[in-house]
Amino acid sequence: MADEVLRVEGLHKHYGPLHVLRGIDLTVRRGEAVVILGASGSGKSTLLRCLNFLEMPGAGRIHLEGRLVGREARDGRIRYPNRELSALRMRVGMVFQQFNLFPHMTAERNVMIGPMKLRGLSEAEARRVAAANLEKVGILEKARSYPAQLSGGQQQRVAIARALAMEPSMMLFDEVTSALDPELVGEVLLAMRQLREDGMTMLIVTHELGFAYNVADRVVFMEHGVIHEEGTPQQVLLNPQRPRTRDFLRSHT
Ligand code: ADP
Ligand code: MG
């Protein structure tokens, strides 16, 4: 469908004998924010890492903007040619719990480096792109600061700007506020909320249930590598149908 940015069908992932993703089906439409909840170890990070090809997916299919990613071999398995992967990673931005900014570069430089190296932008163009994206996350005034001069919340917003500067089709967020001091969580969630309002397509792993309730179009509850329950935030958070979802919510509120 034209408005589908991501469609995942029957995705599996093994680590050796460990069957971590056991048939994930998930669609994210343009402009949608989908929140993934689930206990530690349920496979949330593995799913996001497969969608950004930091991990090679096992069986199953991933469609990005209506196109199958990789090539289907005769045996029906999908091969992911190496040369396609860097282009794919540009189309799917990812932000992690650990911000991993380059410590010897200013915030602005951290955001400029990807567009210059991977999108071929000139220094001047990259500077404009950096300014626009630092502005989007409300941190333009820190453009010339080094990561060590920024709070965790500010660093995480720079990391978001850095991902946005690649002009991805969608953004993946993996517990981006989990490493922050509690008083810094709000500013990062606010920046993500603003992105949602700007129409960015987002797939977000978080334990922030208030954020999920207020910002998500859909909430997905993962359990042991499958999607156990999904629906609107009202359905999943206020009226969960399955006992495991209820147990999870009880232990997180
Ligand atoms: P979550 O993000 O929901 O906490 P993960 O996707 O990180 O879950 O992990 C799911 C399962 O896969 C866990 O049992 C974890 O130990 C295992 N796992 C994750 N990454 C690896 C890896 N690189 N090698 C082996 N096992 C892994
Ligand atoms: Mg995780």
Ordered list of secondary-structure elements with their pairings:
Elements: E1 4-15, E2 18-29, E3 33-38, H1 44-51, E4 61-64, E5 67-68, E6 71-72, E7 78-79, H2 82-91, E8 92-95, H3 107-118, H4 123-136, H5 152-164, E9 170-174, H6 182-197, E10 202-205, H7 209-215, E11 218-223, E12 226-231, H8 233-238, H9 243-251
Parallel strand pairs: 3-10, 3-11, 8-9, 9-10
Antiparallel strand pairs: 1-2, 1-4, 4-5, 6-7, 11-12
Helix pairs in contact: 3-4, 3-5, 4-5, 5-6
This protein binds adenosine-5'-diphosphate (ADP) and magnesium ion.
Magnesium ion is lined by residues 44-45, 174-175.
Task: Please provide a written account of the structure.
It is a single chain. The protein has nine helices and twelve strands. By secondary structure, the protein is α/β, with parallel strands linked by helices. The chain has a six-stranded mixed sheet, sandwiched between helices. Strands 2-1-4-5 form a four-stranded antiparallel sheet, covered by helices on one side. A two-stranded antiparallel sheet has the order 6-7. A hairpin with a 2-residue loop joins strand 4 and strand 5. Helix 5 (152-164) packs parallel to helix 6 (182-197). The radius of gyration is 18 Å and the shape is globular. The termini are far apart. The mean pLDDT is 95. Bound molecules: adenosine-5'-diphosphate and magnesium ion (MG). Adenosine-5'-diphosphate (ADP) is lined by residues 15, 18, 20, 38, 40-46. Magnesium ion binds at residues 44-45, 174-175.
